[in-house]
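Lab notes, practical 5.
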Amino acid sequence: MSMDSNPTNHYTVPSVSIATARTGASSKLNALGMRPMQERAYAKRGEQYLLIKSPPASGKSRALMFIALDKLHNQGLKQAIIVVPERSIGGSFADEKLTDHGFWADWVVPPQRNLCNAPGDDNGKVAPSKVRAVGEFLASSDQVLVCTHATFRFAVDEFGIDAFDGRLIAVDEFHHVSSNPDNKLGSQLGQLIARDQVHVVAMTGSYFRGDTVTVLSPEDEARFETVSYTYYEQLNGYTYLKSLDIGYFFYTGRYLDAIMKVLDPSKKTIVHIPNVNARESLKDKHKEVDEILEALGEWMGRDETTGFHLIKLKDGRTLKVADLVDDSDPAQRSKILAALKDPSQKENRDNVDVIIALGMAKEGFDWIWCEHALTIGYRSSLTEIVQIIGRATRDAPGKERAAFTNLIAEPAADEDVVVDAVNDTLKAIAASLLMEQVLAPRFEFTPKNQGPKDDFDYGQGGYQEGKPNVGINTKTGAVHVEINGLAMPKSDEAARICKEDLNEVITSFIQDKPTLEKGLFDKENTLPEELTQVRLGKIVRDRYPELSEEDQEAVRQHAIAVLNVTQQAKQKLADTDAKGEQGNTSLIDGVRKFVNVRDLDIDLIDRINPFDAAYAVLAKAMDEKILRQVQASIAAKRVAISIEQARDLAKRALVFKNERGRPPEITATDAWERRMAEGVEALKRHLAQQKASEAKGGANV
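Output from the prediction step:
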């Protein structure tokens, strides 16, 4: 992504760039009219509980139609209830002539059964008529109902869990659910699963939550069969879109004075201005929109039909700008929304040029021509970031590049808000690293010299033991890598986690604030093994307490392998570009150049600090004064080794003793050996303090 690089005004932190193969596979239809993701999901249609993890624009809505029709016609279910987070998404489940493409039935929703089109506010206050409409549907012979999450919650309260027996409950944007007892929909879903009289299909473009609470309890999640279709598979299978860039852009002063450095009027763009509570907000959303319009060019009035602003640029062109922020005139707002959702304009690239939004145009907003998603102010939820990026990653004729830019106020050393600024910096780096994982191919690891994997292409000469060949599955984009000493999962559940859920494990790791702080700003006192073994080990144990220690270790090793192979591949590509060699941002090329099965082993992986690349870019981009202030802010929070950390280090020390025949020495030259020894000593101190405290307490009885 090209940006003005004047360091006195702003700077960037790590960016992600991915090139696609443009195989066209994402849009190819099979004999039943199904795209690859839909075919994969339909193959699991007989499962009672099905979780579909698939990125925006991959066809989740239609996949649900295929599955629901089979459950209604062939599996004996009475009805299907489709539950969406907001009314605007209800349109994704409108009637579809599936038979035109080879399927054996059409998807039909009676008009009165799509409650997303019915009048009434669903923003926490559901019209009683909608709840009654759910009851009428349950008593009717109609087969399909579409409603919002809110309507469904109220209906379950009104009619009880057992009223939904024998029905399919399909939950779109499933990440809105949470295992937190205060999450009403999550609690109701838990009750439905416990009663075990319904089928559930859950769909989401990002199985993450910003609040770090799990979506489902481990017990409930274990009952779901998972279908995963990765972002990498989706993008790689496009016909037109060639590359996606993700970057973070920091500025000083007001964001409105810097926005035109990243807002290119020649690109179809969605601008999300900051929430009023964000540091970047000027606390007047209408004024902010006015200034953006003024920065773009000369205002020429509004289009009478669409309500779009008409802005004349310096080069004479006229931009059509949709303002979704101004809600003061309901009639004008309805006109704009109708123009954006007009089916006859979906294929018209010139319908609108720029959309300015606040809380809208995120989930389920389908504008295939969007080339740039520009977001002001950091979004604390990775889910929201993925959803916003998804607005720009639709495939469309003539659209070769897409970009996501996050414009954030820089950490200013002289301001009282430096702690908030530091937190934003950490979050931005975490999100950038996480997106690298979300956009990476799926890795399949095996121990060294176990032979080739089926369906993997090992390049010229095929698989050769001891050679630096990496197998690529050209259909799925998965990568086979051999690692010496790799622990393999023993149970089916651990194998499923290693295959399907490593992104969630990595998310928890990178979003863990102590991990991020240590990895970035306390490098002198933090050893890579403390991050990759101790911190990540704890995260895996907390997330999967039901797994055996062997399986927990296998999951940990697979997660750190994915994280570090991705980071090293990216660094290899950066080195290639720096040398002036033929550049290609495809992560696969980086993997091929980096991975060498002759010397890649788990010890090497554990010794890599996964945050090194982020720190290097951050250190280069920030001036010394600001970077020192950031480090000082982090250092102020530093604490001694806790009893929990000490126990983890002591366990590692025991493994060390069993392997080496001696305990780790606190005077050792090896930093990790010293750290383990320090953990043992710290544990002794903690236990001694506990014993003394207990003795003192007993004496006072």
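Observations recorded by the TA: The two ends are 69 Å apart (CA to CA). The first helix runs from residue 36 to 42.
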